[in-house]
Inverse folding.
């Protein structure tokens, strides 16, 4: 069962690996990222960042979409991580098993504006998240103890 789908441009790091994994008792982490799926060095870094209690899978977005139905098992408590709103939209378009998206970290860059401490979006991000929001909840927070803020109230 998918417990959390999170957009975080850093993918897997301490905040995600421990705060969110512990909060949901995660035993499967699926990183859906085309670059990570091809980069052995990035894969090594992601493996070092994962909590010992979880199995880590690193797949391309296309392969992750194909594997989402396998996560519909009550024994699995899955965290799915993507690094962009575009990839989040791909997952949501392909699956009925995703109930919400957590936007946790998108760094500031040219053409982006901050909507929270750790989330900066541009017009494409806003469009993607609004499209996702037509189907499921889109919430913004860094860690489980933060107050949940709905994306639609921040833009």
């Amino acid at each position: 069962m998918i417990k959390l789908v999170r957009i975080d441009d850093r993918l897997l790091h301490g905040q995600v690996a421990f705060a969110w994994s512990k909060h949901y008792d995660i035993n499967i982490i699926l990183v859906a990222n085309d670059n990570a799926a091809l980069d052995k060095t990035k894969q090594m870094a992601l493996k070092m960042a994962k909590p010992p209690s979880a199995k880590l899978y690193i797949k391309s977005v296309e392969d992750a979409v194909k594997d989402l139905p396998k996560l519909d098992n009550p024994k699995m408590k899955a965290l799915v991580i993507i690094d962009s709103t575009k990839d989040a939209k791909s997952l949501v378009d392909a699956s009925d098993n995703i109930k919400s998206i957590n936007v946790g970290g998108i760094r500031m860059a040219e053409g982006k504006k901050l909507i929270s401490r750790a989330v900066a979006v541009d017009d494409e991000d806003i469009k993607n998240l609004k499209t996702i929001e037509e189907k499921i909840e889109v919430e913004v927070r860094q860690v489980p103890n933060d107050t949940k803020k709905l994306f639609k109230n921040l833009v």
Summary: The domain at 2-153 is CATH 3.40.35.10 (Fructose Permease). Helices lie at 14-24, 34-38, 40-49, 61-67, 85-94, 123-133.
